[in-house]
Amino acid sequence: MDKYQKPIVAYAIFTEANTKVRPDHFAIDFMGTSLRYTFNTYKIASQSDEALQASDNPFALVVLTAKAALAGKDLKSSRERDELLLNLKLNLTRLLLAKQIAKEKIRVLMNFLRYYIRFENQDINTKFEQQVEILTGRSNTMGIEELLLDRAEKKGERKGERKGRNEGEKAKAIAIAREMKKEAMPVAQIEKFTGLSTEEIEKL
After folding, report:
1. Rg from Cα positions in the chain
2. What CA–CA distance (Å, rounded) separates 86 from 125?
3. Is 176 helix (H, G, I), strand (E, B) or coil?
4. In 3-state terms, what secondary structure has residue 14?
5. Between the CA of residue 198 and those of 2, 12, 161, 204, what are the distances in Å?
6. What is the mean pLDDT of each run of 10 residues along the chain (204 residues)?
7. Contacts of 169 (CB under 8 A, 6+ apart)
8. FRET partner for 14 with CA separation of 20 to 30 A, picked from 52, 117, 122, 168?
9. How far lies 141's CA from each of 32, 71, 110, 150, in Å?
10. β-strand pairing of 11-14 with 40-43
């Protein structure tokens, strides 16, 4: 407000699984001085799947993804939970590709979908990527690896790829890790995705 002289609006977005009502204000009162800050609240778990699926607002897909990530919390078997999440992710992928959304936004939403809903079993993740390739033919969207490699290539960061398969794969992993760090992704996530060690990632 001070910088742009524009009115502002605040939202507290709750991503927990329960639908319990949360406070919509903060208040403090001390020795005759009081302050009350009131804000909007938005509960992910309270939103209608049908209304979100019918919406043309890209944020609706973000909310659907956040809701899907809550599924299967009561399942003891990681395999069963991953299978449930796989079906949900694929359904969201189909919904995303059916929407009339700009290609760049599809890429952003696909990457959010990939990383927000995570599998415990790596083979399920592989199955998801294979199904995405079938659904898209790689024409409507770009995987996170392709996107990051594209950025790295433009910046000339794949210098060692022609020096042999091993060196090329290492250069590829480093380029991806460097871009993932710029996106402020967790080190553990980068390590799992690229195969680099924590020490190698922290040095980039």
Report:
1. 21
2. 8
3. helix
4. strand
5. 42, 34, 22, 10
6. 92 89 94 96 92 89 90 84 89 85 81 85 84 69 52 52 57 77 74 81 85
7. none
8. 122
9. 58, 25, 8, 13
10. parallel
Residues whose CB is less than 8 angstroms from the CB of residue 131 and which lie 6 or more positions away in sequence, other chains included: 90, 93
The overall pTM is greater than 0.85: no
Query: Helix or strand or coil: residue 113?
Result: helix
- Residue 176's CB is within 10 A of a number of other CB atoms, namely 23
What is residue 28's DSSP assignment?
A: E
Dist. CA 97–CA 90, nearest whole Å = 11
Which of 203, 202, 175, 204 has the alpha carbon at shortest distance from 187?
202
